[in-house]
């Protein structure tokens, strides 16, 4: 079985995700959104990019593409899904995961390394880490500010559904170490069930040793 990396018009991290998955010997292929998902998939990646040019709101139009019906069915059957960056925006717009991503507090596109603290290491996506580990994984987005109202953030935190928060290199969370102004510095969350996750930073850009960073390996390894 293969991991489907869904390509929308404007996706641009799909091949990077395939390469990163192949690093672990995972069979991965790109699924063009108009063609639907292959009949049997072992996992789904919603990759980064600028689907539909980020018009309306980043991810809003892709979230309404017909392939998302296949994605919903597969997820309901327990197929693991990871949304990265634009894929995280799509995941939230499709309500597979809570919250929304809005324009960075800086109002600028930011492409830079980010330190993340692992908040819950007991999920398939973070099992390779220990709670409290600090990993460096790059961000590259203009609309990466995670927004969620306090009551729901509290619920997420109580249910251990926050995967990563932005932090400084010592693991301290503070406004200075929150690159986009996300609510509670949240960088990645789980859906209602732990096989569904989204994150703004790009683990596929921190997996292949040739790219100089490997801290993201543990996340994509979850598909192996
Ligand atoms: N790297 C990406 O996926 C880009 C994310 C996104 N569309 C933004 O700029 O907000």
UniProtKB/TrEMBL annotation:
GO biological processes: 'de novo' IMP biosynthetic process
Signal sequence interval, chain numbering: none
UniProt keyword Repeat, yes or no: no
Recorded GO CC terms: cytoplasm
Catalytic site positions: 85 (nucleophile), 202, 204
Role: Part of the phosphoribosylformylglycinamidine synthase complex involved in the purines biosynthetic pathway. Catalyzes the ATP-dependent conversion of formylglycinamide ribonucleotide (FGAR) and glutamine to yield formylglycinamidine ribonucleotide (FGAM) and glutamate. The FGAM synthase complex is composed of three subunits. PurQ produces an ammonia molecule by converting glutamine to glutamate. PurL transfers the ammonia molecule to FGAR to form FGAM in an ATP-dependent manner.
Name the UniProt record assigns to this protein: Phosphoribosylformylglycinamidine synthase subunit PurQ
Source species taxonomy: Archaea, Methanobacteriati, Methanobacteriota, Stenosarchaea group, Halobacteria
Gene behind this protein: purQ
